[in-house]
Specification:
This protein is an alpha+beta fold. It contains four helices and ten strands. The chain folds into two domains: 108 residues; 112 residues, Sandwich (Immunoglobulin-like). It is 43% helix and 23% strand. The radius of gyration is 26 Å and the shape is elongated. The structure holds copper (II) ion.
């Protein structure tokens, strides 16, 4: 009877794990593009795969213990004041320690190399910096040649494809957060403290810009668009002073 109870408990305990698993599947379905998305996806997949290996082993042992402890080892009865029957093995303990250490080394390596990639833009000759200012409730863009406009006029932030572009982000009034979800970057826009981020867009098209910091009543309306343009089209627009 207790075995059935243990097995049901074990199965029930797996439900939250399965729910987490399905929630994570959504990550793989959310569209990402550009150089950052590749790095993030690799980082995420590594953490997720190693995490799954640990989860499967831990749950395997957990279920094995719940279903075998009482029946197969009748001697293993807890008596107050005496040590429980030893079930461990030094070999297994060492193996687990070495495997976990190897996992942590792999995770630190990939984490630090990703941070390095995010923080050090791989600039090219035609790279440039756009100053982005967050205002309640729109984004202002300023290019090196002086072109300045805001998302409030319904115009997208224009950048060329296959060119690393840096965003220098600041808050004009309150805290905002400049986010390009599909290019996987989010830069805090704080008054008087510029932060930078960069992207390398690899596909032309339009992508959403969002504010990821609750910044007031109309925070949810603080949306814009990023237009990744063909290089020649961008050059024509840019050298024409921003005229269409
Ligand atoms: Cu905002």
């Amino acid at each position: 009877m207790s075995k059935i109870k243990n097995i049901s408990l074990a199965i029930l305990s797996i439900i939250p794990l399965l729910l987490t698993f399905f929630a994570i599947i959504k990550w793989f379905q959310s569209p990402g593009t550009g150089a950052h998305a590749e790095v993030y996806d690799e980082l995420f997949l590594t953490y997720w795969s190693l995490g799954m290996v640990v989860a499967v082993i831990v749950y395997g042992v957990f279920i094995w213990l719940m279903t075998t402890a009482v029946e197969e080892e009748p001697d293993d009865v807890r008596i107050l004041g005496s040590l429980p029957v030893e079930r461990g093995s030094a070999k297994i303990a060492w193996t687990v320690t070495i495997v976990i250490t190897a996992f942590l080394l792999i995770l630190s390596q990939i984490t630090f190399s990703s941070i390095d990639f995010f923080e050090n833009p791989e600039l090219e000759e035609d790279s440039f910096t756009v100053k982005v200012t967050g205002w309640q409730y729109y984004w202002e863009y300023e290019y090196p040649n002086g072109i300045t406009y805001t998302s409030a006029v319904g115009e997208p932030l224009r950048i060329p494809v296959d060119t690393p572009v840096v965003f220098e982000v600041i808050g004009g009034d309150v805290f905002h957060s400049f986010a390009l979800p599909e290019h996987r970057i989010k830069v805090d826009a704080l008054p008087s403290r510029p932060n930078t981020g960069w992207i390398l867009a690899e596909e032309t098209g339009t992508y959403p810009i969002r504010c990821y910091e609750l910044c007031g009543d109309d925070h949810t309306l603080m949306i814009g668009e990023l237009e990744v343009m063909d290089k020649n089209e961008f050059d024509a627009w840019y050298s024409g002073g921003g005229q269409q």
